[in-house]
């Protein structure tokens, strides 16, 4: 549901685009990051946290 909320926000702001965790993970790995993971947050509708190591 968070992706839909953020997509609507970006559409209203007329900038950016939503990306799935898989897409962000792929981008990070291609950039040399490793151990990419998503950390659950208390308010997943509004925020998400992705961490990776170099």
Protein architecture, described:
- The protein is an alpha+beta fold.
- The chain has a domain at 20-54.
- The chain contains 2 helices and 2 strands; from the N terminus they run H-H-E-E.
- The chain has helices at 2-13, 21-30; strands spanning 34-39, 49-53.
- The radius of gyration is 12 Å and the shape is flat.
- It starts with a helix and ends with a strand.
| Contiguous runs where pLDDT drops below 50 for at least 5 residues | none
Q: Specify the structural class.
A: alpha+beta
The SSE order reads HHEE
Strand order of the largest sheet: 1-2
Q: In whole angstroms, how far apart are the ends? A: 30 Å
- Which band does the percent of strand residues land in? 15-25%
Q: Any idea what the radius of gyration is?
A: 12 Å
What is the share of helical residues? 40-55%
State the shape.
flat
């Amino acid at each position: 549901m968070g992706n839909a909320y953020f997509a609507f926000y970006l559409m209203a702001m007329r900038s950016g685009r939503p990306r799935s965790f898989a897409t962000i993970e792929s981008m990070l790995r291609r950039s040399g990051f490793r151990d990419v993971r998503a950390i659950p947050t208390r308010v997943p509708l509004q925020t998400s946290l992705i961490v990776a190591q170099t």
